């Protein structure tokens, strides 16, 4: 009976909590499960990649600058992922 009370108390506390991060509330995690499983490192990489693509498409930078920036970003991301994997596995 005490365990059931504890579970109900925890569930109600979680249900009432406002876990707002960038406008995403806790109840929306269940509506959009992709928001629940999120890699902030990849999300940052994707935002930077999209910004570079947007600059290229709006003709703020030329193709040579676009490819250089994308290559630099890709190399940096790959190195960070390898460093993270090394820390995890060793």
Report on the architecture of this protein:
The structure is a single chain. Helices cover 78% and strands 0% of the residues. The protein is mainly alpha-helical. The mean pLDDT is 80. The radius of gyration is 21 Å and the shape is elongated. The protein has five helices and no strands. Helix 4 runs antiparallel to helix 5 (63-89).
Brief characterization of the structure:
This protein has helices spanning 2-16, 26-31, 33-36, 40-57, 63-89.
Chart the SSEs and their pairings.
Blueprint: H1 2-16, H2 26-31, H3 33-36, H4 40-57, H5 63-89
Give the structural class: mainly alpha
Spatial separation of the terminal alpha carbons: 44 Å
The helix tally amounts to 5
Report on the biggest sheet: none
Number of strands: 0
User: What order do the SSEs take from the amino end to the carboxyl end, as H and E?
Assistant: HHHHH
Question: pLDDT under 50 segments (min length 5)?
Answer: none
Approximately how much helix is present in the residues?
A: over 70%
Shape: elongated
| Rg calculated over all Cα atoms | 21 Å
Mean pLDDT: 80
Give the amount of beta strand, in percent.
under 5%
